[in-house]
Amino acid sequence: MPELPEVETVRRGLEKELVNRKIVDVLIYYPNIIAKPTVEEFRKQIKNQTIHKMSRYGKWLIFELDHDVLLSHLRMEGKYFFRSEKDPVQKHEHVIFCLDDERQLRYHDTRKFGRMYLLPKDTVYQVPPLSNLGLEPWDELLTVSYLKEKWRHKKIPIKTSLLDQSVIVGIGNIYANEILFLSHVSPLRASNRVTKKELECLIENTRKVLKEAILLGGSTIRSYHPSEGVDGMFQQKLYVHGKERQPCPVCGKAIKKRFINGRSSYYCTNCQK
User: Fold this and answer.
1) What pLDDT shows up at residue 144?
2) 43 is catalytic
3) Does the pLDDT value for residue 56 go beyond 50?
4) Which residue among the candidates 5, 8, 59, 137 is catalytic per the annotation?
5) Which single residue of 81, 92, 227, 261 has CA 20 to 30 Å from 146?
6) Residue 228 annotated as catalytic
7) Could you confirm whether 3 is annotated as catalytic?
8) CATH number for the domain formed by residue range(s) 144-267
9) What predicted TM-score, i.e. pTM, was given to this entire model?
């Protein structure tokens, strides 16, 4: 699944091509991608609106239009491609935005899990899905006190809490494994048993890991590429994710893999307590 660095890479690529482009029409081949409003209202409202800015919140892409905001979540394998209007529609191209320069922005999703919302500009952050989200990693409100309050009654593993988008947005499985390794915290530790010093490390390493991943274009893992024509390079920097039975880069002990609440966790039992 694309995480914050991959979505930011996509945002930057789209921004270069889409700012000041008008959407003259939209073709929808798989209606379930459109979460809100209805497909008919979506098509009617978005037509002839200009894209003024591309932004992001957590894992959500935000297309800022004249009157509305288009929210797009890529979920597992969603991607955007630019094509000529003369190019035949390919399998898994489910939503096509026709632009005023005779190009098309095509949403491609083999799993069909992605979702789009078209919401009024003035309320987009006051209603779901964005109203349900927590803080961006670089928000100054992300402090030790904030995390202690959120997790003080949480006995679930800290790995699970790091993935909770209602607390911190944008962290997915890959980066959670790396953040915990750098912070010397076991993914199995109860969230309310993480110390103040360790919370400071978690915040610092969250920002450090995500910043470096963005600079390297995210991670290309298995079938996911962050953007068309772009291969993320951060997977070459991974310490533990995907490295089961390989030696820990710090102590040499074999990296262990374990499923925690259905998510694969990679960690060093010696370095992470």
Assistant:
1) 98
2) no
3) yes
4) 59
5) 261
6) no
7) yes
8) 1.10.8.50
9) 0.92
